[in-house]
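Appendix B, Record 12. Input sequence as logged:
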Amino acid sequence: MHLGNDAITPECAAIAFGAASAGLATSAAAIRRTGITHDKLLLAAALGSLVFAAQAINVPVWSGISAHLTGGVLLAAILGPALGVWTMAVVLALQALVLGDGGLATLGANVLNMALLPAGMVAVTKRFATMPSESPQLPLLGAAAALSVALAAGLIVVETAVFRSGNELAGWSRFAAVMLGTHLWIGALEGELTAALVAAFALFTSPVAGRVAIRARLAYVVATVLAVAALVSLSSELPDGYEAAAQTSGMHWLLGE
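Logged structural output:
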């Protein structure tokens, strides 16, 4: 789902950067209002590492199509929407700078799609139903994760089309159909996995309190990161939903080809 430099026009990139900057500024202001502890920052770093590693593992989800965990709702649910946004934004920036996964010119769009949108979904769910821990109920959280993937796919369809000429969009309707169709299914899997990970996280850390709880959470996340990292070599070589949609529609330029 990471957009490369050629996926959107400079005009769209500028608009996305502006919107992403506004969202990040709002999130930073929220973090300043509530404050943040050193232990919470360590937890954010650990969870960010988990998402960074998880996004490197693609698994087959459909005939000829693979997918990976997005993790935006996961981060926002555990860390809170504001810190979750910044954690995902750092992950996306590091992926673009270190791995070349996603372009620097499209970083604003990727932050909108994979950080701000999922965090917004979590913020909305928190307004409707909460558990004593103030975390959204797991079914709602899973639904938010699933919907965030489908909505992000819709945003990508729009972002890749605006300010384009008719000739460039010859296969756009096919691209849109494949993107939306595959990501409805991918979103359902994201929702199930997100709910399971949040439930496991809560179960692992519930018996302890105070500073010990933070250490238990960190230990859980570090162990999960190591387990995920061990699976990286098994990642599928199949194209993900975005790549498959671009290839199927003949819009290979979306991938920089």
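The beta strands are 59-62, 65-67.
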